[in-house]
Protein backbone atom coordinates (compact mmCIF):
# COMPACT_ATOMS: atom_id res chain seq x y z
CA UNK A 1 0.00 0.00 0.00
CA UNK A 2 2.86 2.36 0.81
CA UNK A 3 4.39 1.69 -2.60
CA UNK A 4 1.18 2.77 -4.31
CA UNK A 5 1.04 6.00 -2.31
CA UNK A 6 4.68 6.79 -3.09
CA UNK A 7 4.05 6.05 -6.77
CA UNK A 8 1.04 8.36 -6.88
CA UNK A 9 3.00 11.15 -5.17
CA UNK A 10 5.85 10.78 -7.68
CA UNK A 11 3.44 10.85 -10.62
CA UNK A 12 1.79 14.01 -9.25
CA UNK A 13 5.14 15.75 -8.72
CA UNK A 14 6.44 14.88 -12.18
CA UNK A 15 3.11 15.76 -13.79
CA UNK A 16 3.10 19.13 -12.03
CA UNK A 17 6.63 19.89 -13.20
CA UNK A 18 5.79 18.98 -16.79
CA UNK A 19 2.62 21.10 -16.67
CA UNK A 20 4.63 24.08 -15.35
CA UNK A 21 7.18 23.77 -18.15
CA UNK A 22 4.49 23.44 -20.83
CA UNK A 23 2.61 26.51 -19.54
CA UNK A 24 5.82 28.55 -19.33
CA UNK A 25 6.84 27.63 -22.88
CA UNK A 26 3.37 28.50 -24.22
CA UNK A 27 3.75 31.95 -22.64
CA UNK A 28 7.01 32.38 -24.54
CA UNK A 29 9.40 32.19 -21.60
CA UNK A 30 12.98 31.87 -22.83
CA UNK A 31 14.68 30.64 -19.67
CA UNK A 32 12.31 28.79 -17.35
CA UNK A 33 13.19 29.45 -13.75
CA UNK A 34 15.33 32.50 -14.48
CA UNK A 35 15.10 34.87 -11.51
CA UNK A 36 15.45 37.91 -13.79
CA UNK A 37 11.89 37.31 -14.98
CA UNK A 38 12.26 38.50 -18.54
CA UNK A 39 14.48 41.50 -17.84
CA UNK A 40 17.57 39.42 -18.42
CA UNK A 41 20.76 41.22 -19.44
CA UNK A 42 21.50 38.32 -21.81
CA UNK A 43 18.68 39.51 -24.11
CA UNK A 44 16.62 36.36 -23.65
CA UNK A 45 19.44 33.91 -24.26
CA UNK A 46 20.18 31.32 -21.61
CA UNK A 47 23.70 31.11 -20.27
CA UNK A 48 25.63 27.97 -21.04
CA UNK A 49 28.02 26.71 -18.41
Average pLDDT reading: 82
Q: What radius of gyration results from the CA coordinates?
A: 16 Å
Structural class assignment: mainly alpha
Helix content: 40-55%
Count of distinct structural domains: 1
Uncertain stretches: none
Strand content: under 5%
Number of helices: 1
Cα distance spanning the termini: 43 Å
Main sheet? none
List its salient traits.
mainly alpha; 49 residues; 1 helix; FeoB-associated Cys-rich membrane protein; elongated; single chain
Protein architecture, described:
The protein is an all-alpha fold and 49 residues long. It has one domain (1-49). The chain has one helix and no strands. The longest helix has 25 residues, at 2-26. The mean pLDDT is 82.
Task: Please provide a brief summary of the model.
This is FeoB-associated Cys-rich membrane protein. This protein has one helix at 2-26. The protein has 49 residues and is mainly alpha-helical.
How are the SSEs ordered, and which strands pair?
Elements: H1 2-26
